Every structure is written in C-alpha cells, then in structure tokens.
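Re: the request from the purification team.
They wanted to know what the chain is likely to look like in 3D before they choose a buffer screen. I agreed to run a prediction and write the result into the notebook, where they can find it.
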Amino acid sequence: IHPEFDPLLQLKILRELTTVISTTCELNDIVETVLEGMYRSLGMDRALFALVSNDRKHLVARCTVGHEATAFQESFDWSLSDHQDNIFHHALEKKTILWGRVGNPAGSVGFIERRVRKIVGAGPFFIAPAIMNGLSIGLFYVDRRASGRALDEESFQAFKHFSQQANLGLDFLAR
C-alpha cells in the first residue's frame, strides 16, 4: 500500500522537475513535483511542505501527500517564536538538511523534542529547508511512520538531492 524506493522513478521525476523549472516555474508546481517525487520514488509514507508565515512567526503546512495527508496538514502549525531550539527552527535557521531521530540525546541536532513528536509522531523523519534568495521560506518533511519501515542512508541522500534541486528551482523562480 505504501510506495517503495524506486531509483528509476526518482530519475524520471527529477527530469520532470527540471522541465517544470525551465518552463512554467511557479512555486506550487515546484513544490508539488518535489513532494510527489519524495513520496513516490523514495518510498515514503507521507511528505509535507510547510511555509514560513510572512511575519516569520509560524511554519504552516501548505501541501501534503500520502498517509492521512489532510489530517497531517491540518495539525502541522508550528510556532517559530516559541522553543527556538527545536529541530524545525534549527533546520530553517542553519539552512541544513536533517535526519530527525527519536533516540538522539537531548541537545543534539537531530533530537526530536516532545512538542515535535506530538505533531509528527515518534518515528524518524527527514527535513530540509526550502531556500529562496538565501532565505529559508519553508520546510520539506518526509517519513515512513505509518508503515514503520526504517529510514536509511540511501533514502537520506536521495531526499537531499530532491531538496537541493527544489532550492535550485526556487532560486531560478526568484530571478
């Protein structure tokens, strides 16, 4: 029922993303192509794109695909003014791609604090900032929580590739 990791599909969708960027190049088209690619070709259970509000105080889900997408989107509204040390804030501020793991010790970069677990659940996940003109404007999130399948290094590297391509598209869009 959940998609499986598929390198050939990944290549196909990355090619589609290149076409989207070079032709229509609209934010929604880039985000939707990236989310579908992350979800389907990386074999994730769900994928989400959250946008930083204009006042930079909230991170709010704008687009989701996969397992219980609507409920997940409705529950994902994160205050960026509180708890500045959480993993979402860290990824946005440091502009870094992270592998969130529950078992990490407190204070480590990938640590998933209680408030984060209430929103995304207890399983591991990948997050990456969406960067336009050097500014973090949002966040990509994926996991395999529903199926309980493990995340692995190959999936993380592929997620990073999708994120980097998305950010190239966002920079192109900004021009």
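For the purification team: The chain has six helices and six strands.
Please add any questions underneath this entry.
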